[in-house]
Amino acid sequence: MSEIAHFFTPVPSDVFDLDVYKEFQFGRSFTVYKEGSEFPELDTIQLAIVGVAEARYSENNQGSQYASLAVRHFLYKQYGYAMALPIADLGDIKAGHSVEDTYYALRQTVDALVRKNIIPIIIGGTQDLTYAQFLGYSELEQTINVTAIDSTFDLGNPEEPINHVSYLGKIILHQPNYLFNYSNIGYQTYLVDPNSLQMMNRLYFDCYRLGAVRDKIEEAEPIIRQSDMISFDMTAVKHSDAPANPNASPNGFYAEEACQMMRYAGMNDKLSSIGIYEINPEYDVSGKTAHLAAQMIWCFMDGFFNRKNDYPSRTNPDYLRFHVVLQDEKYEINFYKSKKSDRWWMEIPYPPHKDLKFERHTLIPCSYKDYEMAVNNEIPDRWWQTYQKLA
């Protein structure tokens, strides 16, 4: 991967010391681009750690450019004896002459890795890097689904320059438009402008309040399962569990819930990139947030190792098909249940006048709860949202 090697600086020797790691610890099992070594060969790699040392477009979180070094301190010490996975740590994308230069480097890196079926696990840096992560899909000629685990929407004013709380507006307005759906998991109503929420509803995007998700965390799984890329803002985790940010809130997800969602992400057969952003070691307490981020990455890898590869085919005998007619035969929904994982999908009618670029979105993940709603003559919200977008 010589085309991206020049973007990276190796992991410093004071962070990575092979002699201190035991058998089965990640520090021994990862292929690490460290000082004095060559950039890794990636032909057999499936997952790649990508640090990004960039925080210049943050309004008040300078210092998060050092997050990847803090996370590695804990990540390398974790045991992965059950994960027979070829994993590489590519080091850090160095900050460019301008922030746009850093964006370009991350964009090219995501594009190159995704094309080789390698999932980049990005450790930012501030969350405006999500925009560069998104741009990495611009040449792949398909529309994608983006999910943010975040306490706010980060829409900002599209007329103003991008920063870490306005990247989403740039994604939505990007031309050509290859965003099919945006989902937010964990927004906190008192932190969200009501006009922004109305706009999300008008665009038929999926937004789930913190309380609703925490009440039944397994309902986050189908949301995450439809994602091509995920951006995880660590301020979505409550301050007591992740204090390393001046904007951290007393409310948010618990550490174990963050890890559970990361495991769901790892198990998602569609997911091709994930980023963890907004960790500022200057505000951390005894490395608590960096340690949590390392455990979140472990859970993602564990989920990836346990992937079922069971995205449904409409004619595959490994799936049970359920046909539901509702609202006086006005709507018909086909549900599919995997015999391998017990996961559910539902089918959206594909309008014949649409071109083929949206066809990959006609089978969407769902839960048994959605099937129960349909049986009770109620249209599931996520079916209706997608139906409206395709109509």
Written account of the structure:
α10 runs parallel beside α11 (288-305). It contains 13 helices and 14 strands. The termini are far apart. The model has no long low-confidence stretch (mean pLDDT 93). It folds into two domains: 2-305, Arginase, Chain A (3-Layer(aba) Sandwich), CATH 3.40.800.10; 319-390, no CATH class. The chain is of the alpha/beta class and 391 residues long.
CATH architecture designation of the largest domain? 3-Layer(aba) Sandwich
According to CATH, the fold-level topology of the largest domain is Arginase, Chain A
Count of helical stretches: 13
Overall CATH class of the largest domain: Alpha Beta
In terms of quaternary structure, the protein is single chain
SS-based class: alpha/beta
SSE pattern: HEHEEHEHEHEHEHEHHEHEHEEEEHH
Which spans have pLDDT < 50 for at least 5 consecutive residues? none
Helix content: 25-40%
Observed structural traits:
globular, 391 residues, 10-stranded mixed β-sheet, 4-stranded antiparallel β-sheet, alpha/beta, single chain, Arginase, Chain A, 2 domains, 14 strands
